[in-house]
Design goal:
- This protein is mostly beta strands and about 140 residues long.
- The protein has a single domain, classed as Acid Proteases (Cathepsin D, subunit A, domain 1).
- The protein is built from one helix and ten strands.
- Strands 1, 2, 3, 4, 5, 6, 7, 8, 9 and 10 form a ten-stranded mixed beta sheet that branches.
- Strand 9 and strand 10 form a beta hairpin.
Length: about 140
């Protein structure tokens, strides 16, 4: 099955518009769910989620904080695992990945969910079509 998403237009602080590869996901832990429009980022190793989302989902994070370097600079994260459900545009069209490692951002101002390569990209054939759309096709030979 192939899930298709359109790039979404965002206005930057400078007033310039850009398009970002946004995928519709659900973060799930036990019986709790949160829906997000997440940035699919082939340049990010880790999937990152906001601390508020991790708290709501009741994720058990490792005690040890590690420093992560990102496009905004450095920040502290704690690692955990979560289920990610990629939602299709058609009802009941979805792909689920369980026990995906995530980095929980410790800065309360961080609000974005970034889907990185580790634990995600190896499960899909992903095509970024210029700045128009993204297609995710689940690989079956895993």
């Amino acid at each position: 099955m192939t899930l298709s998403y359109k790039f979404k237009k965002f206005r930057l602080e400078s007033g310039i518009y850009t398009k970002r590869p946004i995928v519709d996901i659900i973060l799930k832990n036990d019986d709790k769910y949160l829906e997000f429009g997440a940035i699919l980022d082939s340049g990010s190793d880790l999937t990152t989620i906001p601390k508020a989302a991790a708290d709501y989902l009741g994720l058990k994070a490792e005690d040890k904080e590690i420093e992560m370097v990102g496009y905004k600079g450095t920040g502290k994260v704690r690692q955990s695992k979560v289920t990610i459900i990629f939602k299709g545009k058609v009802k009941r069209q979805e792909e689920t990945l369980s026990n995906v490692s995530v980095a929980i951002m410790q800065d309360p101002e961080e609000e974005d969910v970034i889907i990185g390569t580790a634990g995600v990209f190896e499960h899909f054939k992903i095509i970024f079509n210029d700045t128009k759309n993204i297609n995710l096709t689940r690989l079956t030979n895993l």
